[in-house]
Amino acid sequence: MKPPVSNHGLLALGCGALLMLLILLLQSRGSAGPPQPAPPAAAVTPIPMPSTPQEECGGHDGELVVATGNDVSTGSVRREVFDEWNDLIKPAADPTAKLLEISGSTDVRRAQMAALAQAGSCEYDVLVLDVAWVTEFARHGYIQPIELDDQGAGFLTGPLEAGQIDGEQYGVPFAADAPLEYRRLDRQSGGYLLQLDDNEMGTINFLEMIELGGGKVLDGDDRTRVALDDDRDDTWEALRSSKRVLSSTEEGVTVLRESLQVDEDRSVVAFKEGRIGERPVSYMRNWPIAFHQLASDPRMRGPDMKLLFGVRAPAADGGVLGGSVLAISRHIKPNKLDPAMRLIKRLTSQEVQARLFACGGYSPVLTEVYERYQAGGGHACPRQDGSDITNASLPELATLASEIRKSIERAQPRPKSPYYAQFSEVFRRCARGVWEQRVTKEAFFSSVGALEAALNGRVPDDRPPC
């Protein structure tokens, strides 16, 4: 292995490169002829695998660490599932499973998981990974392929394929996600809230704004072809539109400008209160998890205990597929591999998936769980003694399961590119610029080159496209 370059060596290399650049600039000033076009941006190469020996990679020998985001379920049911596994179910010889919550922000979580993987750390054994980051983690060597029984029979097609990269399964579906439309039944005169804050959720909502509105951003088998076309007025009009067509009535409702500063949690609060600032709120786009957050609040039920809100899947195709998969770190110690697979099998069993759905609000990834609840079977979550939480009833869960499944079947994945994070940032900057009325139509559509470069891992120049 080559010895590392010292700081003095790096300084010398940098000074030499700077001197050569100055010489080339002076030569170019004295040369005749028209200026030459700039060379194409260099491709970003995959990050090489670190050579950290297993015995020096860190980690916890006595624990199987599962890295994830914050538990947003009602009653922290996900943690209860892990406690049950450790206390009652796991083989005695298997290490204790430790659920480690890193961050509620998917962007922060991705950065931290990637940084440790890049360093060769085995601090995390199993990763609860957003489906948008599977390609990056697989192609950069952060996670390893997983063998599934019966090629994953029983999983919903969309979530299963989201974990497949280059023909191999790298992630086992854990929780599905797709957009739902929430509407207050006790007030119809308010506006519509999206989540357009400057994070990944904003990217998702802007993609949906265009594609649910009849426009086009992405195309191709892996959604890695940028399809923005300035000849398509429907794309521009869908992005600029201040209206969202309701799936229930096909009427247009005003999207509130406050959406630019709203994330998932704040929109749920505003929907409960029926206003944001001085503006009334009657409608909201959110994930299925919001249903339990609303249904468990006594303020969202009438005197007869019926819900004061309804929920429907978007009427059109174009929603963005979300959710998470269970992935195994490339750096997991060999003695933890079989215990990790046993834990994953438990977490994706029908029993656990139904419990996470009924008690926590996580959308199942198994076809049979949906079919059972849609047919009126399954189990509602029992009410906890002394709690003012009202759990969703079996009929309410049946309706929810039906609408979630419709939305998942209509939803489109985000691009399967290891450089999706770069694309997300560029696209969101340009789309927000349109909504902030600082980016023109010409400037927005001129970002196509930068978006294609980002998806292909090419380093953009210093000039932002929007």
Contiguous low-pLDDT stretches (5 residues minimum) are 1-46
**Into which percentage range does the β-strand content fall?**
5-15%
Main sheet properties: 6 strands, mixed
SS field, number of helical segments: 16
The CATH topology of the largest domain is given as D-Maltodextrin-Binding Protein, domain 2
Proportion in helices: 25-40%
CATH class of the largest domain: Alpha Beta
Number of discrete domains: 2
Mean pLDDT: 86
Give the CATH superfamily of the largest domain: Periplasmic binding protein-like II
What's the β-strand tally?
Answer: 17
Named at the architecture level, the CATH assignment of the largest domain is 3-Layer(aba) Sandwich
Overall geometric form: globular
Oligomer: single chain
Tell me the span between the first and last alpha carbons.
44 Å
Alpha-beta content class: alpha+beta
Radius of gyration equals 24 Å
Protein architecture, described:
It is a single chain. The chain is an alpha+beta fold and 466 residues long. It has 16 helices and 17 strands. It has helices at 7-30, 77-89, 106-118, 134-139, 157-162, 200-212, 233-240, 264-273, 289-295, 337-347, 350-360, 367-374, 394-410, 420-435, 441-445, 448-455; strands at 63-68, 96-101, 126-130, 143-144, 164-165, 168-169, 172-177, 180-184, 191-193, 218-219, 225-226, 243-245, 252-254, 275-276, 279-286, 309-312, 322-329. The strands form 5 sheets. Strands 1, 2, 3, 4, 7 and 17 form a 6-stranded mixed β-sheet that branches. The model is unreliable at 1-46 (pLDDT under 50).
